[in-house]
Every structure is written in structure tokens, then in C-alpha cells.
Amino acid sequence: xxxxxxxxxxxxxxxxxxxxxxxxxxxxxxxxxxxxxxxxxxxxxxxxxxxxxxxxxxxxxxxxxxxxxxxxxxxxxxxxxxxxxxxxxxxxxxxxxxxxxxxxxxxxxxxxxxxxxxxxxxxxxxxxxxxxxxxxxxxxxxxxxxxxxxxxxxxxxxxxxxxxxxxxxxxxxxxxxxxxxxxxxxxxxxxxxxxxxxxxxxxxxxxxxxxxxxxxxxxxxxxxxxxxxxxxxxxxxxxxxxxxxxxxx
Length: 249
Ligand code: PGA
Fold this sequence. Notes:
Mean pLDDT: 97
Shape: globular
Number of domains: 1
Strand order of the largest sheet: 1-2-3-4-5-6-7-8
Radius of gyration: 17 Å
Bound molecules: 2-phosphoglycolic acid
Strand content: 5-15%
Distance between the termini: 16 Å
Helix content: 25-40%
CATH superfamily: Aldolase class I
Number of strands: 8
């Protein structure tokens, strides 16, 4: 059985003290929520303080990235091993902002994915097409390639730890969102591509939708059979909105 997940990607927002306030509000408002796994992904500077606030709750702690090397002379990087030891259980890997602004290639992302998995961290692996690719009707081809190039190269035994986030780049932070029909169509396709390699295990993979997901559109999107939750950017910075989205199942 796959689980419903709502994950908040805080991106480069909130100071450490603002982050602690935000997560405290989320903890309070999430009480009684039982049919959905909540995850928060604060910036690295808040991993300990936010982690401490959710330590005794069911809320999961995620990073937004991890290094592509295990350890050593890589100034400014944070390794998967460090994150795991700091209490991180999930890592967003391959977000389109990382791919675009920091030139993270498929080769780099595969290394990150493998290091996260080797350290017991579940990757929230992001895929999705940009506007040109959608307009040229190449979105199926693009996500297939992203999956084949990266996810197909992980150990089969690790596959069940992976969460997929489908995020059409044209919907991220733009206020434009995929329709529920568009989301279902491509989520079902993603699952079918995953099943080519991983068989029935793909039925248990949580596939999240991301891109301008808000309290007023989450219910319709989450009602689709192959949409198992959301990766939420902007709306995850407001505890009421984040919890309203989580209550949309
Ligand atoms: P958004 O971001 O909800 O602000 O569109 C989603 C994401 O980038 O994960």
C-alpha cells in the first residue's frame, strides 16, 4: 500500500528562528491528522532546531539537497552521512531549481541518489518537463528519460525507499497548476514507466504532484488515483495553508 505524503519544500526561506516558529505551528495544527505523512524540508541551517521540534511527532525531516560526494575536500557541501546523523530521513534530490541554476546533471543526481540511499535516507526525487517541452507535447518523453537515466540505475532493493515528485517546471511558483486530468495522465504514465523496471513494486511508490499546489486546488488533484500527495513550495511557508493542503485527502 502506498502512503499519502504532503512535503513542504521551504527552499531558501525563513531564518532559523522563523523556521522554528513555523514548524511549531505546523506541529500544533497537525494534531489528529492520520491519513497523510507530513514532511518538512527546511534549509540546512535549521536541520537541528526544526528536527528537535518534530522529534516526538510523526512529521518527517527532509533536506533539500545532499552532496554528490561522500566526504572530503568539497567546500560548502553537506554529505548524506552528515544529514543522516543529524536526523534527516528524506532528501529532495533533482529539484528543477537545482538542475537549472546549479547545473546538476543526471550523472550528479544519480550519485546523490545512491549516497542518500546508502545512508538510509529516502530520496524525494523530482522530475518534470519545462514549458517548451509541454507545448511540444514532449512531456512523456522527458519524464521517461529522467527516470531511465537515473532511477533505473539504482539497486532494485532500494527502489521502495524512493518517493517521486512530478513537478512541471511551468507550474512551479507561477500560480499555474496542472489540471487534475493532466496530473493523473502523467502520474499514471510515470508509474507505468517505473513498472517496466521494478514491476509490481511501482504500485507502492508514492508519486507526489508539485507546482503551485494550494488549499483551493489540492483536493481535486489529490483525488486522482495516481496522485499520492504533494511537494509544496510557497504554500508550505504558511502553517494554515500547509495543513489545509494535508487535509485535502
Ligand atoms: P510551489 O513550489 O508550490 O511554490 O510552486 C513547488 C516546488 O518547487 O517544490
